UniProtKB/TrEMBL annotation:
Residues 2-245 form the NmrA-like domain. SUPFAM superfamilies: NAD(P)-binding Rossmann-fold domains (SSF51735). Signal peptide: none annotated. Pfam families: NmrA. InterPro entries: NAD(P)-bd_dom_sf, NmrA-like, NmrA-type_oxidoreductase. This is NAD(P)H-binding protein.
Amino acid sequence: MTIAVTGSTGQLGRLVIAALKQKLAPSNIVALARSTAKAADLGVTVREADYGSVAAIETALQGVDTLLLISSSELGQRAEQHRNVIRAAQAAGVSRIVYTSLLRADTSTLSLAPEHVETEVALKQSGLRHTILRNGWYTENYTGSIPAALANGAFIGSAGNGRISSAARADYAQAAAEVVTGEGHDGKVYELSGDESYTLADLAAEISRQTGKDIPYTDLPEADYAAILTKVGLPEGIAQAIASWDVAASQGALYDEGRTLSALIGRPTTPLGDVVAQALTA
């Protein structure tokens, strides 16, 4: 079995490669990357592949049995990029694709959802064997803001009292490795999320507990939160998107209690406190 992974140099991709190396010989793992230099430290076969070139991706996929298509990070371009990968996989003779989608993509109010839905439809129409991993939020999406919270004395957001069933990236990476190397997953759509949920006030309380500092959660109107994110240097469109995702979280978009992720990986998902501790020592 030869398994290829797109987005191999990204945060999730690197964790997936590490998880796969626990299951397969490195020679059976192909890391696809725009920059092969960035992937040189992965310790597996590296091939250059650009989302914009079906021909280049097709060449990179020669001899590959299963492809893990980690969704692109380029918002607004992802649906077409993913279609290019699917077309290339068909032409290269790839027999199976596993795709990282979004929690409840078909009903989600998150602005991220439509491109994932387009990709899911393209997969179903491709005729290829496929599995869809609808990943919930990464806990690191929020713990990445801990340094700013400590510097400013408050954790800010627009998620209200919405409960968030996130999990660590490593949990989702392990699930992907289990599915691409396992049997019985064809045609399945897995809704993946953390075992436990929390509010951003809970997160702020955990940060306070671990640091010994009083870091309250301050809930802001969507426009005010977006304005602050823009002020600290984020592009306006990204800032508005992040704020809108928080509002969607306040309405339940990131909450799930299915515990499918822990069932796939055979262990509980990583507790919030552990991810906070990792962020504080990073």
